[in-house]
Design a protein that fits this description.
By secondary structure, the chain is mainly alpha-helical. 75% of the residues lie in helices and 2% in strands. It has seven helices and two strands; from the N terminus they run αααβαααβα. It has a two-stranded parallel ribbon. Helix 5 crosses helix 7.
């Protein structure tokens, strides 16, 4: 959990810079376009962080194998529980940013299926590069993370929508 948290200061700087640039470059008429670009920059940063965590934070050939036993990675201690929860948290931004970046991904089921597919590709790439175990649990937890992100986005949209209607 410490490694992904270490990326937060860098991500905050990138977000502030991107937001500042878009605020300066785009006027009010182009605000919708600027917001879309902003979300897409956030998504690109998110993808880079996931790739860094999944591949480049490990030595090539350091991990090899396939685990198709469901819920076997939950384990019996705090350390294994943390990895389990980390896999959920890693894909929450996917469930938030993908629908914001791509309107055709707004339907929740479509976004969840896309997230699940991306997780499967990630796991297969880890198996191929031997930079991570290919685990069914990872696909499950990542997909749960996408679902949680979709729910968070819907809740935020309702809160913001209600706030706009009241004012």
């Amino acid at each position: 959990m410490q490694q992904p948290i270490g990326y937060i200061p860098c991500a905050i700087v990138i977000v502030i810079l991107a937001f500042s640039i878009f605020s300066i470059v785009f006027n009010n008429k182009e605000k919708k376009t600027a917001v879309l670009y902003f979300y897409r920059i956030l998504f690109a940063v998110y993808v880079l962080v996931v790739v860094q965590l999944a591949f480049f934070s490990r030595e090539p050939g350091s991990r090899d194998g396939v685990n198709l036993v469901l819920l076997s990675t939950w384990g019996d201690n705090v350390y294994t529980h943390a990895f389990f929860v980390e896999n959920i948290l890693m894909f929450v931004p996917f469930g938030i940013l993908v629908p914001l970046c791509f309107s055709w991904m707004r339907p929740m089921l479509r976004c969840i299926l896309c997230g699940c597919s991306c997780s499967i590709v990630l796991e297969l790439c880890q198996l191929w590069t031997k930079r991570g175990f290919c685990e069914l649990d990872d696909v499950l937890t990542n997909t749960v993370g996408v679902f949680c992100g979709c729910i968070i986005l819907r809740l935020l949209e309702r809160l913001v929508g209600d706030g706009r209607r009241k004012s």
